Amino acid sequence: MRGSLRGFRKCLKLKYTRPENKTKNPPTVCGDNMKSLWLCLAWMLGMTAQAAALPVPYAFGVLNHRNLQATAAYWNPILQYVTARSGVPLELHIGRTANETTDRVAAGRLDFAYTNHLFTPKRDQLGWRVLARQNSSGIRGQVVVLSHSPVKTLQDLAGKPVAFANPYGFTGYYVPMDALLRAGVRVVPVFAGNQEAAMGQLVAEEVAAAGVNHQVMTDFAKKRGLKYRVLSESEPYYDLAVMASPRVSEADGDKVRKAFVGMEHDPEGLRVLQTAAQSLGLSKARGFAPADDRDYANYRNFLKHTLVPLNE
């Protein structure tokens, strides 16, 4: 736009002539200048139409299990690929914490999201739909301690500080906290902001244990050579879902679904997934599988019956 304004000012450098009789009549614009003025106006209208034709990208939110830099390094190449393959422009949006990203969803500020925070009874009513999921064997909620910890059972954690990612987390809060409450154990929850931050508090021995997503914990431990023990583990749940808000058309949603699901079957898409995995130090690329709302029925069932008060 700034360049357009400069061009328009240049166009408007018109020449004026006074009649030779030097009367007090106002100056007139000569014919050539009038033609130039019309050309400038036509040029500006063309520039405005071109700008209006550029599609506004959809805001794609990602639930950040890791710090912002690591999350962006992983997701930006994936969204660039999906945008190119689908023709649906996507732009990465990340909150400072995972719960901030979820709050943006609830406030209607995002169009797509990679999340598993939208299956509580209240958020379920927002009308978001599942398009795809990460292609994995599923995720489990765990309560873990360091290998040398004196803690042997959940009961040993009574009254002790336990780290969790955030108060909206599914496998990173609700599932492990539910296991503790069902065992009759009350702990002091410490919310670290994201999964890896909670694990960092465990490593620093600032807490006695951590409630974690087993997949993120496994990746974290491999990178750091960390040894830990599992005190409690849940049933498997499908991994996080790629979801679309109700205002995203069915056509655009289908295009985005096909691009995600096709990534690992396309050489260029597989290369992008491998590069993304390497940015996190993962040994294997993780693609996406088709999914729909029915795949997340056990999430909804758990959240209806959990002993943990829901943060909605």
Can you put this structure into words, describing what you see?
It is a single chain. With 312 residues, this protein is of the alpha/beta class. It folds into three domains: 2-53, no CATH class; 58-138 and 238-305, D-Maltodextrin-Binding Protein, domain 2, CATH 3.40.190.10; 141-233, Periplasmic binding protein-like II (D-Maltodextrin-Binding Protein, domain 2). It is 42% helix and 18% strand. Strands 4-3-5-12-6-13 form a six-stranded mixed beta sheet, sandwiched between helices. Helix 3 (68-86) crosses helix 9 and helix 3 (68-86) runs antiparallel to helix 10. The chain is globular and about 60 Å long.
By CATH's scheme, which homologous superfamily of the largest domain applies?
A: Periplasmic binding protein-like II
Going across the major beta sheet, what is the strand order?
Answer: 4-3-5-12-6-13
- The CATH topology of the largest domain: D-Maltodextrin-Binding Protein, domain 2
| Tally of contiguous helical segments | 11
Distance between the termini: 42 Å
Q: Which outline best applies?
A: globular
